[in-house]
Amino acid sequence: MSAPSAESDTRPIAAYVASLELMKISSLLPSNENRSTMVHTLARALGLFSKDFSPTRTIALVPPQSAGFTELNTYHTKEYLDFILDPQTVANGSDATKAEFGLRDDCPPFEGMSDYVRLVGGASLTAVKMLRQPRCDVAICWDGGRHHAQKAQAAGFCYVADCTLALMALRRLTQPSPSPTAGPTVARKMRTMYLDLDLHFSDGVSHAFHQTSTGSPHLLTFSIHHAAPGFFPVSPLAAQPTANTDPFTLSLPLCPGASNRTFARAWQCVERVREAFDPDYVVLQCGVDGLAGDPCAIFNWSLGPNEGSLGWCVGKVVNEWRGKKLLLGGGGYDSPNAARAWAYLTSVALGEPLSLDTPIPDHPYFPLYAPSFLLDVPAGNMQDQNSDDYLRAVEEAFDSVVATIGERIAK
Ligand SMILES: [Zn+2]
Fold first, then answer.
1. pLDDT at residue 1 above 50?
2. Is pLDDT above 70 for 102?
3. Contact in structure between 165 and 68 (CB atoms under 8 Å)
4. Which of 45, 110, 206, 389 is spaced 20 to 30 A from 262 at the CA atom?
5. CATH code at 283?
6. What superkingdom heads the lineage (predicted)?
7. In the chain, what's the furthest Cα-to-Cα distance?
8. Distance in Å, CA 147 to ligand 1 centroid
């Protein structure tokens, strides 16, 4: 089809946060070296950045603004930022100080770390700013999704809590401002749902917003993940809901081998929570370390397109749910598969899903897509250990959660 002229183009906009600088700095992340470059390079090679890619939604490439101290300080502590944002301080810091800020083991200090924190934090905040534009209903930041970072510590390969910062920015954005002339504000306060599809529990985000108040919170976090004794990150909040659970801090743990079939059933719980909560904004963390073939080798999830696949779930959120959506990245330790997944999810978000038989186009990283050289990330042979009994227990746990959300929201 021919592209409409700029003036008559009324297609909704999907903002895609990317720049050469972001790609270079994000590619230095020790746990995912060069992944960012592969992700954005494949997306471009597949033609996703073309204005004519989809008749239903148009893409806008948006360079990230680097986050300043004040923006990062809305969540992170001054002490953490004073340390991590100054390469000289880090270079001269003692092992004890580095340990205090989590900069050891899986989060070693690295060259470019302070720029990384500013730029990746700023990238997700740039995505939130784009959602303020009336025509922009989807924003994508695959370099974000660092859901383990804490207020005063790096953790689990995450140095900046961009998900939490984005949620806080959305909360500020959605506070109804009292009108001086119209009397009391009648519009309801906006609601934001954070949904996390990463293999690992979203401890950084869930802990940041966990509350036990009996009020009617306007932010709900929901993490679907693997949980088992000793599996990172260990947290009491990673377990399935009980009668005492804060219904706005939800977890749905799955057993090894979780496949499309299991996710299709788990998704019914997600849909029921979404219906009860009725969010105006959805922040979707799309970690891809649960896909088959990831070195974590816990789940056996596939990219698409069948019911229960990652692409199917993301398509439900982006194209069927009400409200505006922010899509973030996350884990994913097979870089070619992460690039495949996020390129495919970008096409889903644009309303024009690519065929999973699409050949990987010739581009500088082509040889790394051996042996299939196709877009698909198919399921493997792992046995799905999520029994019918287990999933029925999960469904029953969510029955009461959904009822409680409904009661609280009605207040
Ligand atoms: Zn993960």
1. no
2. yes
3. no
4. 206
5. 3.40.800.20
6. Eukaryota
7. 66
8. 8
Report the predicted TM-score, pTM, of the whole model to 2 decimal places: 0.95
| Contact yes or no for 127/19 (Cβ under 8 A) | no
Q: Is residue 107 part of a domain?
A: yes
- Within a domain: residue 6? no
Q: How far is the CA of 320 from the centre of ligand 1 (A)?
A: 26
List residues, by chain if needed, whose CB lies under 5 Å from ion ligand 1.
198-200, 287, 289, 331
Residues 214 and 409 sit within 8 Å (Cβ to Cβ): no
Per 3-state DSSP, the chain is made up of helix, strand and coil in percentages (nearest 5) of 40, 10, 50
Alpha carbon distance 293, 28 (integer Å): 23
pLDDT of residue 2: 47
> Which pLDDT band, with edges at 50, 70 and 90, does 7 fall under?
low
In a domain, 184, yes or no: no
Whole-angstrom distance, CA of residue 91 vs CA of residue 381: 46
Q: How far apart are the CA of 198 and the centre of ligand 1, in A?
A: 5
Tell how far the Cα of 32 is from the centroid of ligand 1, in angstroms: 12
pLDDT tens column, 178-232: 555 555 555 678 899 999 999 999 999 999 999 765 566 899 999 999 999 999 9
- Determine which helix (DSSP H) or strand (DSSP E) holds 13, and give its type and residue range: strand 13-17
Say how many C-beta atoms besides its own lie within 10 A of residue 287's C-beta.
25
- Polymer length of the chain: 411
**Residue positions annotated with a catalytic role:** 148
Distance, in Å, from the CA atom of 33 to the CA atom of 23, rounded to the nearest integer, reads 11
| Amino acid, res. 193 | M
Domain count, the chain: 1
Alpha-carbon span 323 to 289, nearest angstrom: 27
